[in-house]
Amino acid sequence: MKNLKPFNGDAKKEYKDAVSRMPRNSVSRSRLELIEDDIETVYDHYKKEFDNSSLNDVKIHNWSAKQKEDLLSLYGYHKKIIRNIKNNITNQQIMTIRSTCQNCTIDSVNTMDHILPKIAFPEYAVNGYNLFPCCSICNGYKADITDHSAFLNLFIDELPSVQYLFVEVHDNIDCLNFDFFFIK
Question: Alpha carbon 88 to chain centroid distance?
């Protein structure tokens, strides 16, 4: 198992692009433009912690309810910014895994998971370093979990370099049964 290659673009530029796509005279856009310096600061901090594999040190920022709403409005799986980020991440991976969810390796990528949950960290809703392509089933498993460190981060967590999960296949007359087991 190998770490995936993370987003390699400019997260602050992507954020600014998302804001610039909002209607020019919208109140949300104006509010987001007012906090642009704060966003740049928290994005720099996030990138530093990401590079140091220490996202647990990223603290929740006290945005107003309207600011949170505005930040969350930037995210949408079918929005151009998210498509750009998804393409940036998936195109760096080897061809055989580009469209497969790397959490389960079963389903196709059809959503983006937030490493730090967007509800608690709305400022990172469109940060490419905080987004991970996956399937909706795997993404849904995290919905009720608040401890983001409870999940493997395939970009920065240390992954084993040897096989550790094995399977025995039992062919019964009308079905297959599988036994999974670990070997140290």
Answer: 13
SS3 156: coil
Q: How far apart are the first and last CA of the chain?
A: 15
Q: What secondary structure letter does DSSP report for 108? A: B
Rounded to whole angstroms, the Cα distance separating 129 from 11 reads 7
The answer to whether the beta carbons of residues 18 and 74 sit under 8 Å apart is yes
Closest CA to 112 of 146, 93, 85: 85
Range name among 45-54, 83-92, 173-182 with the lowest pLDDT average = 173-182
What is the average pLDDT across 42-68? 95
Residue 91 to residue 154: CA distance in whole angstroms: 16
Q: What pLDDT shows up at residue 59?
A: 93
- With residues binned 3-state (H G I as helix, E B as strand, rest as coil), the percentages for the chain, rounded to 5, are 40, 15, 45
Look at residues 76, 80, 67 and name the one whose alpha carbon lies nearest to residue 17: 80
Predicted model pTM: 0.84
pLDDT of 2-34, one tens digit each? 789 999 999 999 999 999 999 999 999 999 999
> How far is 56 from 60, CA to CA, in rounded Å?
10
Distances (CA, A) of 47 to 6, 91, 106: 11, 21, 30
